[in-house]
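Provenance and format

Records in this collection were gathered into a single text stream. Each protein contributes a sequence line and a token line. The two records reproduced below are adjacent in the stream.
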Amino acid sequence: YSLKFEVINAGQGGFNTYDELLLYGDIKKYYNPDLIVVGFYLNDIETLNDSKKFFKENYFILEKSSNEFLMKSHFYGFLLNSFKSIFVLPNIEYEDYLHKLYSNNLNLRLINQSFYKFKDITKNKNINLIFIIFPNFRNWNNYGFIKEHNIIKDMLKENNISHFDLYDIYKNKN
């Protein structure tokens, strides 16, 4: 007895959950999946405007561009993530930034709408859906994002979406 399956890794660095929802709209034109697994990192609640505002206020580097194509490109996302990893020091600043994302009602509404739309689309197509929540691995010994994990898990439960929080596994590891 053997199982045959095909895995399509459509993950994109720098995408938030809404971007992934749009990506699924493109993928479904070519594929008919039985299961969709969505990786959710705690900063997936952020919008491009959150990120630009944070860096403009703190690191002077992101001036407004009139080139919308550039601002929405993968290259721009790569540069933005590179700047984050290089300039967001010490970790406490990035932690504060993540906490602020979860205190923004608009962000919470947008992420909940994305969850709802994902569930609605997959349910109508009879596709299984699961979200995997990844912890923030910075400052692991003094982990400060339990509240954010619970917010996401509560939203996923409200939308009747299966999920798995990797923090629950990693919290007991050294």
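Adjacent record:
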Amino acid sequence: HKIDIAAHDDNGNVSHLSLFVKRRANDPTPAAQPENSTKVEWNKHFYKDFGGAEIRIPARMLYESIFLEYSQDSVPGNTVRVKAFSQLHRIHTPDVPLHSYVTMAVTPHDAPKHLESKLCLARVQDNGRFSYAGGKYEAGKVSAEVRDFGAYCVVADTIPPTITPSFKNNADLR
């Protein structure tokens, strides 16, 4: 098949490009499905309960169909400063982009009643650092809209933010 592309600018100039494309006689063999994965079609709604974690992916949030991988592990660096109230849930890999938000829900365990209003999801980076991913505790789960696959757990957001000015005392701020 021949494809012709014409680009016009505001001065009336036109550039033309023609190219030929050819369909392969035999489509490549689809990739084998990895063990412990679930096929997710890019154009279909998907929901999966992994037991402790759930994911809901609306249709067209993926750029292509994938084999969604899931694993569960203990949270690294569980300390007095950051206490996780769930296992670490690795939902696929962060290098696979999402078109928009998907819903993730994680069931907390051993969370004190007085912290329920402060429970949220945290994304755990490869270096063990935690970053706030949002969410709200409701009906026994912490649910959040997230834009990335990766490792998540439930934490309590109890440390207030601090603001450090980047200017010196008596600086002219005009």
